[in-house]
């Protein structure tokens, strides 16, 4: 556990979630990565300490509470990233562009790149917005 564990405990309490080892661990891992994290990656890192069903439930609860948001990469794999402070149990506000690197396959939140505003036809209501760009990320571009 890092120095953030106190902050994570408060976050759980604030959202009416009990402090459990797997929940704290998932928060710790997700906030220490510069890219979104898939469930298989979490399983790999957490090993046998947590079973798949528990992990799935932790992610689902976090998503419902507005703590993390889900991003599907180009292969349809779900990746999870910590939300900015504007999300809550009622609605998410993660209207930023996501970037899927074709080389390292990482999915990044481009938190400062907002999805441009657009109009939908009358009668349509947008409930979910997803804009994913793909290409080469800065870390990979640096390597050549
Ligand atoms: Zn969110
Ligand atoms: Zn990359
Ligand atoms: Zn994001």
The quaternary structure here is single chain
Largest sheet: spatial strand order: 1-3-2
Count of discrete domains: 1
Percent range for β-strand residues: 15-25%
Instruction: Count all strands and give the number.
Output: 6
Roughly how much helix do the residues carry, as a percent range? 25-40%
Kindly report the CATH topology: Arc Repressor Mutant, subunit A
Could you give the order of the helices and strands?
HHEHHEEEEEH
Q: Main beta sheet: strand number and arrangement? A: 3 strands, antiparallel
Please report the number of helical segments.
5
Q: What's the Cα radius of gyration?
A: 16 Å
CATH superfamily: Winged helix-like DNA-binding domain superfamily/Winged helix DNA-binding domain
What separation lies between the terminal Cα atoms? 35 Å
Low-confidence spans: pLDDT under 50, at least 5 residues?
none
In the CATH scheme, the class would be Mainly Alpha
Q: Please give the CATH architecture.
A: Orthogonal Bundle
- Class from secondary-structure proportions: alpha+beta
